Predict the 3D structure of the following.
Amino acid sequence: MNRLAFDAHNEADTDRLGAALADELPDGTTVALIGTLGAGKTRLVRAIAAAAGVPPDQVVSPTFVLCQQYRGRRELAHLDAFRLNNPDDLFELGFDELVDSPAIVLVEWADRVAACLPDDRLEVRIEVTGPTSRRFEIVALGWVLSPVVERLAERLTQPMDRS
Ligand SMILES: Nc1ncnc2c1ncn2[C@@H]1O[C@H](COP(=O)(O)OP(=O)(O)OP(=O)(O)O)[C@@H](O)[C@H]1O
Ligand SMILES: [Mg+2]
């Protein structure tokens, strides 16, 4: 299984997806975040960070800084390709080293630098389906991450614990 669609009805659902990703993504995974302005790319990174024990207020769109690193239970690197003039500029941000490090590498506007991303990566496409709802299409590119998508699917299709 290499793809999964997850419908978040609200931000709590997005937090649940973030928690599943924080638990299941292997060290060194690149996550390509794709979606329009305000789709929820940064919000999903915040959800992953919170689950990894990083204070969520540390997480902001790295639009000007371009690359931020956080360390909690997991190590995270958060990049934004929106303002890069050339996909190769990604490497000036130390992208090669990040990909070889244990960090989960989260790239906003990844569609702008797709050619520079590792072949094995998790693609997350976010669609705005309503004021508080989002559809997350998650695809494992390459074969390495397929079992991860399987585990995410198992976890996210379980009835929600509303207690
Ligand atoms: N279920 C949801 N999941 C994620 N975000 C949601 C959801 N419902 C509402 N939102 C809101 O959508 C907005 C998403 O903004 P966010 O900054 O994450 O977008 P972005 O994709 O990073 O945009 P940009 O391209 O400007 O960086 C936030 O204001 C968030 O509160
Ligand atoms: Mg953002």
